[in-house]
Amino acid sequence: MIEGSRWISRCASSFDRDYSDVRSVIIGHAREEHRDYEMLEQDYVAAGGSLADIQHAARNIGTEALHGFLMYRASQSNPVDLVGAMWIIEGLGQKMASDWAAQIDKTTGGDGSYSRFMRYHGANDDDHLQKLYQLLDRLCQSPSQLDAIVRTARVTARLYCLQLEEVDNEY
């Protein structure tokens, strides 16, 4: 989770002056996301976990692969395709996070004190997606840009699934 704002910031810094409007939107997105990991840590502690455990846990194989791919792409010149990665990640939050939070609370008899991260994203990712749709309108000026965005979205989705599969394999 902490890696999200890192690759988004790297992405923003890789756009040249022809994409200054895109860079500004992505910088804003990184700013909005950069401390979300703290909310996740607080949820973990509220659920009975140790802050030290979550802060020092090794990333799983899927997380390593996802982060490596996103940082690689973010380091390329004008990484337009990463809007596809953002769309997958924000779309997942918008579509699933509120339901996941409700299921966790229902299953565990929780009071919502350890599903705040998911509820927050379920409520706020609509706004993030609107900004991404505006970027898509700006960036999909050619078939090659659209193809790159779609490919990166597909790779991101697969690596995100791998990250979740590896959580199952660890426990």
Q: List the uncertain runs.
A: none
Largest sheet: none
Can you name the CATH architecture?
A: Up-down Bundle
Mean pLDDT comes to 88
Distance between the termini: 19 Å
What series of H and E elements makes up the topology? HHHHHHHH
Under CATH, the homologous superfamily reads Heme oxygenase-like
Total strands: 0
Radius of gyration from the alpha-carbon trace, in angstroms:
17 Å
Strand content: under 5%
> Given this structure, which CATH class is correct?
Mainly Alpha
Structural class label: mainly alpha
Walk me through what this model shows.
It is a single chain. The chain is 79% helix and 0% strand. The longest helix has 28 residues, at 143-170. The radius of gyration is 17 Å and the shape is globular. Helix 6 (82-108) runs antiparallel to helix 7 (116-139). The chain is mainly alpha-helical and 171 residues long.
Provide a concise account of the structure shown.
Helices cover 79% and strands 0% of the residues. The chain has 171 residues and is an all-alpha fold. It has a single domain (3-170), classed as Heme Oxygenase, Chain A, CATH 1.20.910.
